[in-house]
Amino acid sequence: MLYSLADLLDALIGKRLNASRMLIADAVIDSRQVIPSALFIAIPGEQVDGHDYLSQSFSRGALAALIEKDVAGEFPTIDLRNSIPDDFTLPEPPFCLRVDNTLIALQQAASFWRSQLAVDVVGITGSVGKSTTKELVAEVLSRRFSTIKNLGNYNNEIGLPLTMLRMTRATQVAILEMGFYIPGEIKFLCDIAQPRVGIVTNVGTVHAERAGSQENIARGKAELVESLPSSPEGIAILNRDDPWVCWMEDKTRATVLTYSQQSEAHITARDIIGLGLDGIEFTLRYGQRSHRLHVPLIGKHSVLTVLRAAAAGFAFNLTWEEIIDGLQTSTAQLRLSAVQSSHGAMILDDTYNAAPESTMAALDLLFEIPGRRIAVLGDMLELGPYEKTGHEWVGARAAKVADQLIAVGPRARMIAESALAAGMPVTAVACVDAVPQAIDVLKSILGEGDVVLIKGSHGLRMDRIVREIEATG
Predict the structure, then answer these.
(1) β-pairing verdict for 280-286 and 289-295
(2) CATH code where residue 259 lies
(3) Lowest-pLDDT range, 52-61, 328-337, 351-360?
(4) With 0-12 CB in 10 A as exposed, 13-18 as middle and 19+ as buried, what is 284?
């Protein structure tokens, strides 16, 4: 980015001052990410306070720092809470800019910068599949447009504004993942980002502990499509296979573009074949045209991700050739990877996080791969009132898919009990309290040709199982 400090001051105090020659190269909240001419934003957190890292930021070349606390030191501070004369002369960098609240200042700056750019924003939300959808949509749209997307999980009230401040006047499309915990959060992000296109992946039970219910989750996700402009400018891309997402069709003023692999929709997938780690194959249909596709994303559940990305391409009037090229060359498989143990077993590492919907999809992939199938499944957190149902649902599926089940954690015992009730032999089920015991059990049964799925909520750190098995076999 080349964001003028004059623009920043205009956003914060309504005056540009004499700062047009001072260009901000990046905006960061982590002093380790500072590059020369960056803006460092000191945000106080529960465990780390950015104000403690001002010296490190300036030593790395930061042009200025936004602060909300009085700090002693050698760097001059301009107090933006006070009236600033029009002829005020800024000191030579580096210096601090004092505001009431650095997070609000960050959001104000992002909103102002958004208003200065002729950029189309694609907002993406949903319980599962947001990040992979974001990556694949960016892959498709970059076939014609200069695009930008959230880095990693920069999808909240801090990460989204930081992403927007990376936009330049050359940016044509921004693809922004929008996270959700409580109602009102996505509306707030939309007020900043002003999306023209919105994509909803699904409405699951993850975060129900905070949101209260699946209905509350649906209402929160619907804030994206409610924020879109009216048709024909606004376009809502909705999952026809999810009843809660279908419900959103009546909640938007935008043109609705639906996708499905089960029912009738504007964009559909038919004759789906899972090829294990070699990807998926299916027939993509839109309008009067269809095309047989082989894409590198793994698991039949990835078909819906492909449909979302294709829908985004059609929404932006890309040609079939551009869309197919983006889909077939994608590297958007973010969360799940396959590694080999020295025993000759294949490890499916899907340890980033877990919800009932994503775990079911991972089990379906396990079923597509030949070999003795071992499922190592951990607690699924933040399910609230759906905790028992979600774990039992997964257990019933594991009984049909896996030859061996290792349940990790107190909640995962519900998975094991459900698998046993569904007919899985007692000798095929092991329950352990924590990751170290899971490693011991897995090592004792692992053999050549086995396929092992490892999945659980991030809080369990089940990635330790992958590292141990990969290292020692």
Answers:
(1) antiparallel
(2) 3.40.1190.10
(3) 328-337
(4) buried
Position 109 in a domain: no
Whether residue 415 has pLDDT greater than 70: yes
Burial of 20 (0-12, 13-18, 19+ CB in 10 A): exposed
Q: State residue 105's pLDDT score.
A: 95
- Does one domain contain both 381 and 305? no
**Does the pLDDT of residue 223 top 70, yes or no?**
yes
Do 197 and 309 sit in the same domain of this protein? Answer: yes
pLDDT value, residue 36: 93
260 and 365 assigned to the same domain: no
Question: Rounded to whole angstroms, how far apart are CA atoms 360 and 272?
Answer: 17
> What are the E-state strand segments in 14-91?
23-24, 26-28, 38-41, 64-67, 77-79
Residue whose C-alpha is closest to residue 460's, from 402, 386, 380: 380
In the DSSP assignment, the letter for residue 318 is -
Which CATH number does the domain housing residue 41 bear? 3.40.1390.10
Number of structural domains found in the chain: 3
Q: What contacts 283, CB < 8 A, 6 or more positions away?
A: 269, 270, 271, 290, 291, 292, 293
**pTM for this model (two decimals):** 0.81
The answer to whether residue 351 scores a pLDDT higher than 90 is no
Residue with tokens 């030579």: 92
Please report, for the domain that includes residue 377, its CATH number: 3.90.190.20
Question: Does 207 score more than 90 pLDDT?
Answer: no
Residue 418: which domain range?
Answer: 337-472
Distance between first and last Cα of the chain: 46
pLDDT given at position 74: 76
Q: Which tens digit of pLDDT belongs to each residue from 369-393?
A: 899 999 999 999 888 888 899 999 9
Q: Which of 76, 80, 68, 64 is nearest to 17 (CA)?
A: 80
* DSSP secondary structure letters along 152-219: TT--STTHHHHHHTT--TT--EEEEE---SSTTHHHHHHHHH--SEEEE----STTHHHH-SHHHHHH
Token couple for 341: 């143990």
